[in-house]
Write a structure and sequence with these properties.
The protein is of the alpha+beta class. The structure holds iron/sulfur cluster.
């Protein structure tokens, strides 16, 4: 599955980092970094991250 984050919407709330820490993390520059493609075995955590985002910045596709 492919993961995209609209950084124009992202307000660094960090819920995605708590939901799927192996995919989303804050870098040393305090901006969000993420893995652009992840295995389907992680779908549950990643979908949880997307629905947790208060500004709906995360979009997923297959
Ligand atoms: S939860 Fe949404 S707003 Fe917060 S860091 Fe993740 S993508 Fe950005």
């Amino acid at each position: 599955m492919k993961i995209n984050v609209d950084l124009d919407r992202c307000e660094d709330h960090g819920q995605c980092v708590f939901a799927a820490p192996s995919v989303f993390e804050f870098g040393d520059d305090d901006t969000l970094h993420w893995t652009a493609e992840a295995p389907d075995t992680m779908r549950g955590d990643i979908e949880h991250a997307a629905t947790s985002c208060p500004v709906a910045a995360i979009t997923l596709s297959d």
